[in-house]
Amino acid sequence: MPALILEIRHVTKTFVEEKSKIEVLDDVSFDVGVDEFLCIVGPSGCGKSTLLRIIAGLEKADSGEVLLTGEPILAPTPKITMIFQLFGLLPWKTAIENVEVPLEVLGIKNRREMAMTYLKMVGLDGFENAYPHDLSGGMKQRVGIARALALQPEVLLMDEPFSSLDELTAKTLRSLVLDIWKNPTLPTNTFIMVSHNVEEAVFMADRVLVMSPRPGRVIGNVDIKIPRPRVKYLRDPIYFKYCDDVISLLEQKRPVGEKKGFCS
Amino acid sequence: MRRYLVGLGVGLLLLSSAYLLVMSYVRNPEIQCLPYYTFRTILRITVTLVLSISTGLAFGILAATNKYANATIVPFFDVLQSVPILGYFPAVIMFFISAFPPPSELGIELSAILLLYTSMMWAIFFGVFGAVKTLPVNILEASQAFGLRGFNYIRHIVLPAIIPALISGSTLAWCDGWFFMIVAEYITYGGQTYSIPGLGSYLARAAWEYNDMGLAVILLTLITLLVFFLNFLTWHRLTERIHSGIFKPLIKTSFPNFFKPKWINHLRFQSSFRFHGAILATTSRKKYKIMEWIIALVLIIFTVIGLTYLLSPRIPSLDAIIQDLSDPEMRNLPMYTAYTMTRLTTAYFISLGVAITMGVLAAEHKRFATIFYPIYDIGQAVPILSLFPILFMAISKYFGARLGLEVTCIVMLVLDMIWYMFLNIMNAVRAIPDDVREVARLFGFKGIKRITHIVIPAILPAIVTGSMLSWATGWNTVIFSEYMPYGREVLMLPGLGSFLDKVAYEYGNTALLMLILALITSIVILMEKFVWRALLKKFERYRVEV
Fold it and tell me: Fewest Cβ atoms nearer than 10 Å: which of A1, A160, B198, B473?
């Protein structure tokens, strides 16, 4: 068993809107190991994104806790950062300023050079003075990745980072992310990605966590034991076997009349 | 529906008891005519609204669907819209009074309607035009694929698409009508006062002839109440209707848990937001070809010449024009311009400061937002021009007549300008997307950093749009409030506005009036072109794409 970096303990979350209560997460527990690439898949509305936001400290869990190397997370911290589905760039800042601004908040001195280094790493040198408005979706997400990496977090969260990109761009960015993950010179080596794309999850992750429809619960855990680099195995039966495993977990029907409990 | 009926009943009850109360307790020779005055004012505004809707609709659809109409009407209206309405009002009165000399009321009535019309029509025209222009491409393609042409195209595609814009444009027009009511109904011209029965003229008389501050305040409150109630009765209902209709509303107006008195807010945000949209539609479309400019220019020149010809009782010879223009006061023109600009700038920066502060507070603390919106709503329902006599009466008590007028003028300008800023900024604050807020929290923006890096840039485009609108309305107000009939004499502040009024109402000097009007219009257009549009273009990329 490798060392644990994150422990998610009995997290529950309910949103109250006007009169109705929406139960989003119901007693979710799992661990994440150091250097692990974890993917969370589940049907839409199962609370994956909420879960990610709780880990990031953006939302508070109603009960339960999230521990980062033993310390509970109560507010956003630079040790955990996030990449957004819709990029979350500030439209009034250029690419490089978008990377710099979080560093400025932390009071880092040589932020311009640092920002430049990370922009180069994601292949955006030459575009540092462009505004998000003038960048393509893929380039915007590259800025998002550079911004997250520049903080040198221990854990990188990704909220469906490729789902608003076209497939070709997504493919390129997936391998970029995998390269970053494997790069031993970077301090960031624990990745948690939320996705609803099973093939993507199996392609990228060490382990796929499957969640149930609302209220979200962990209903399965598939270790993906395909050797890397996995590009070679994209046509291999073993790849499809893992995909089928995850899909069959996702497609489990709840027994009629029973509201709680899953046989996993 | 039930809520609506209850509101209707309670409002009606409240309103009629207010009327009864006022009519039985206030001592004023005219007080018994109050219901009649109310009826006349409502009738006047309604007639004008019907006129505005029919022409605005026709021109709007025409301009949006026909290439040639687009090339001529739109730039033409764009320029006309920049002329402060109160600036050409004297010319209109000159014409109508000489056509239908008093004691016939017709001249004044017609000029009042024309004034109201020119203030009300733009919102409808640009709203309709924008809505047709921004019809989604897929709907256009589908309609072509299914062979909808001509009348069927208008009936099945265009009309349903513009209904939201039409309703919100009409709402705006309606409010504009109440705004200008007091000026339109009570006119001093050539040393004489003309008035037509109505709430506005009654309020003006209460302040200036009866010198009865109490009555003026009561009337103003009553008018505010009435505007509120009528808005609720008509526009709110219609707005709700279109929302439940099949056609998807252009703007969402559900503001969850922010607002308690929902019906008030619905309406105004919807309307002004649309208008904002219309303005933006104008912005993005504003790249005219040279040919279009020429056509528009020729049209404008013709209109101006035609108007001058119509408005002056005789055809002016060149000598007469030169003589008119050689008025000794002419050399004061640069100074007057400077004075008025100073007044406007002062008021602008005060409004800017207050509006930004409020916007930032609302962005940072939800609680402030819940306080600000109702303030905005009540403030917006007060017909600000009608506030002028009351404000002056109150302020001149402390500052004396002269300085009092100066202070009143600035206060009026601030009250007038601030709403557009406030409205636009509040909308922008509300529109800051969740992901930007989330990013701000994730990366630990706090306090001043949060304000400078997140809130201010997010509202910058809105500040520019708000500034553009507030300067436009500011010019109207300045023309009105630099010049005040005070007892037997006329009190005025040196400035372009009072000069225009004096030239028009006292000297009847058409050529000079046209010159001042052209000067003001060019200031408005130049500022728009070189300041606001440039800034807007710069900040365009700040707009968060969703």
Answer: A1
Residues in chain B whose Cβ is within 8 Å of chain A? 256-257, 435-436, 438-439, 441-446, 449, 453-454, 457-458, 460, 539-546
Q: CB-CB: which of B442, B449, B457 is closest to A58?
A: B442
Q: What's the whole-number mean pLDDT along residues B130-146?
A: 76
Indicate the residue type of B474.
G
Out of B441, B540, B546, name the one closest to residue A76 (CB).
B441
Q: Which residues on neighbouring strands pair with residue A210, listed in sequence order? A: A41, A220
Which range is least confidently modeled, A162-176, B30-44, B315-329, B473-487?
Answer: B315-329
Residue pair A164/A88 in contact (Cβ under 8 Å)? The answer is no
d(CA A157, CA A88): 13
Nearest CA in chain B to A102: B443
Give the whole-angstrom CA distance, residue B158 versus residue B137: 13
How far B261 CA lies from chain A's nearest CA (Å)? 16
DSSP letters along B464-517, please? HHHHHHHHHHHHHHHHHHTEEEETTEEEE-SSHHHHHHIIIIII--HHHHHHHH
ipTM at complex level: 0.75
Beta-carbon-side half-sphere exposure of residue B182 (alpha carbons within 13 Å): 24
Beta strands across the sheet bearing A71-72:
A20-33, A4-17, A63-68, A71-72
Cβ-based neighbour number of residue B105 at 10 Å:
14
Burial A171-185, CB ≥16 within 10 A → b, else e? eebbebbbebbeeee
Residues of chain A with Cβ-Cβ distance to B452 below 8 Å are: none
Residues B387-429 have pLDDT tens digits of 888 888 888 888 887 788 889 889 989 988 887 788 778 778 8
Nearest by CB to residue A92, choosing from B439, B457, B546, is: B457
Is residue A194 classed as helix, strand or coil in its secondary structure?
strand
Whether cis (ω within 30° of 0) applies to the bond prior to A213 is: no
pLDDT (tens digit, 9 = 90+) per residue, B168-213?
778 778 877 887 887 788 877 666 777 888 888 888 888 778 878 8
Structure tokens, B342: 């100073």
B143 vs B136: CA distance, rounded Å: 11
